[in-house]
Amino acid sequence: MRGEQDLVRTLRTAADQVEGLDLAGGVARRRRALRTRRRVGVALAAAAVVAIVGGTTVALSGGEQRAQPAEIVTPEVPKITPVEQLWPRAVVKMPAKKWKPVTGLSPTQVLLAANSAFEKAGQLGVYDSARGTTRVLGDIPSPKKKYYPQKFAVSSRYIAWYGETPQDDDPWADFWIMPREGGTARRVTEVTADVDAIGLTGDSLVWSVRGGGVYRVPLTGGKPSRVPGSDGLHLTAWPWANGRASKEPGANENRVVNLETGRSVDVPLPPQVQMTQCHAEWCVGVSGGRMIVQRVDGTGRKTLPVMFRPHGARWLLGDRYAMFGVYDETRRGLPIAVVYDLATGVTAGLGEKSEPWVSGSVMMGANSSAPSTTPSWDADVTYHRECGNGRCVVKTRGGGKQLTVVNLLAATR
What we know:
Largest sheet: 6 strands, mixed
Shape: globular
Transmembrane segments: 40-60
Protein name: WD40 repeat domain-containing protein
CATH architecture: 7 Propeller
Oligomer: single chain
Number of domains: 1
InterPro entries: 6-blade_b-propeller_TolB-like
Number of helices: 4
Keywords: Membrane, Transmembrane, Transmembrane helix
């Protein structure tokens, strides 16, 4: 039986292996290790994907552990409805060769990004599911050598992003905006800081840094200023920011703050919970090898079925959903992952496993700074394991032509 520390080490290893799958060995070797994991790991190709082979590679064991006490323990065999049946209007099919979904813009529009070079976003677009068309919004400039755009944010008027030169030792970032309807990108400002998230208000661009603290600058440019009351906080989606229990990777997010109103909530967490992630109203964490969910005030706490496991490094989707991997080697016909409605407990299945022991991959949304609303996968890919010399590896067949995208802005609740 694994202890809590073993579980945390496994989760961190899984996240590192996820990024290794996306970045490829050549790129990983030529970039400085820490900055690769933390910066280039969020480039366009990195989308929190996990491949699981029956506990051999990234599988998280610990299901035999007893869950910590919680208000509600859900059934061990949950009701999972295929997403195409549960939210048919939210399911979109789009070409997979060029574009990757970032997040939803509306119930019928999905923000897209395309690479100009390996794992380097160079263009933005929008897919209109009502018309079945893709429209180019504009190009993403590259003002420096070895420059990589990072995370994107959206408001009613603009799309914003920041870029970095992750191979350099000195922290630096610049910030850009583009009209939401498309056009020429404009640089707002640049800073000597280690940025980790970005957002937009009505008239300002905001961001947080890895050491904690949120800053803002007018969209017209000027001198950045620190947002009052933001010490130690990390932006999720404006006006929301989180505090963390420590600076260690995977530390519990244990405080939720509205930076517009100043309202701050200390999140009451059960003993031994780890890796907790929170947004405006909901939190998701791991305790005793089980996923738990609760409101930020501690109410509505549930221990989820043991078959639901972490999928990638981030689990929250939008303002009320989370995505989990599904693992049960004894059953066929299971989905690769599920979208779980934190408010109602309704569970939507994404994709279908090729074998009971082999999971697949679902992307969380390419580089959305706020929790993305567009998980996606290649339904034509099949995953299988090939074993020999005492080890097994995951191999794929087919795919590459079409993505299935779930636009949660169109989900009926």
